[in-house]
Amino acid sequence: MNSPLPLQSPHPFPPRPKPNYTPKPPLLAHNSAQGQTSTIKCASRRSPDDYHATLKALNSRSRRPTKSLGQHYMLNNEINEQLAAAAKVVEGDSVLEIGPGTGSLTNVLINKGATVLAIEKDQHMAALVRERFADIDRFKLLEEDFNKCHIRSHMGSLLESMDLSREKQRHAKVVANIPFNISTDIVKELLPMGDIFSQVVLLLQEETALRLVEAALRTSDYRPINIFVNFYSDPQYKLKVPRSNFFPEPKVDAAIVKFNLKQAADYPTVSSIKSFFSMVNSAFNGKRKMLRKSLQHICTSPEIEEALESIGCLPTSRPEELTLEEFVKLHNLIVRV
């Protein structure tokens, strides 16, 4: 009998997560010439990580998840497959992964034929994935802190180095199981990069996912980040992921969210993006205040009331009552750039 793995959770041993999905059949392609259906197989496909493989990888480096880095490792490979499927990762794609950890999601992305640029802050995990994918030309690793990393420069270089004969500067994608404690920072950094990325698919804390995607007007969850997210993208809540799928098990469930990034030409028309978000942030700094008071540093209260009425809002409107489109119209009426 094999001895138990030495790595343990705060409880005796992390329970094997119950399957949350029905395994998918092989991908089928129709052969129009012969009228037959054949199975598409990926050459040199690597075996998927399972529950024990992830724990063994951590044990190989004598590592325990670090709370300060927000580390929670995925134990269910089907969820990694769901992340890749949400981004529609196909052969030839360029993918940015943030915090690869033991490389279980990386493995899925590589099996799908993607070139992966991974950013890992933890030197031990960086060494693990560097060794694991040492024989893969389509894997690049940056041992850096995401918050200090020049994403645009690195991704631009990667795209330029790839075969451009297919499609010049094809947009990259982001697929990542990110640390919950820096999720907002990551969203703010990536969403304005529609010139680099077409899609950003993230595994987030469920509460954060719902707040970013489904926060309703006139609720306490409606904040400047909602204006930001919808200005730069079309967000979609894809799938709930129970907390039992992680090691160590967090105190909250997670969810997969997909952001379809807009191109600059599709952004709402404002005279200055910088001044627009400055106005939005000022409006919400006094959230319970009426806009005619919180925006007095921009113009007079009567002018704000008049502008609000001209866009179909009450002169006593508060920030949580305005949609993105209404904020855009208000900005264009009261802000002089």
Automatic annotation (TrEMBL):
Which residues does the annotated region (Disordered) include? 1-46
Its Enzyme Commission number? 2.1.1.-
The UniProt entry, under InterPro entries, shows:
KsgA/Erm, rRNA_Ade_diMease-like_C, rRNA_Ade_Mease_Trfase_CS, rRNA_Ade_methylase_Trfase_N, rRNA_adenine_dimethylase, SAM-dependent_MTases_sf
Q: Where S-adenosyl-L-methionine is bound, by residue?
A: 72, 74, 99, 120, 145, 177
Write down the superkingdom of origin. Answer: Eukaryota
Q: Does the keyword Ribosomal protein apply?
A: no
* Polar residues bias: start-end ranges: 31-41
Keyword terms, alphabetized = Methyltransferase, RNA-binding, rRNA processing, S-adenosyl-L-methionine, Transferase
SMART domains, per this entry? rADc
**Which GO terms fall under molecular function for this chain's record?**
RNA binding; rRNA (adenine-N6,N6-)-dimethyltransferase activity
The answer to whether the entry has keyword Transmembrane helix is no
Domain Ribosomal RNA adenine methylase transferase N-terminal span(s) in chain numbering: 79-263
Q: Where are the transmembrane segments?
A: none
Enzyme class, broadest EC rank: transferase
Biased composition, Pro residues: where in the chain?
Answer: 7-26
Q: What is this protein called?
A: rRNA adenine N(6)-methyltransferase
Source species, please? Turnera subulata
Gene that encodes it: PFC1
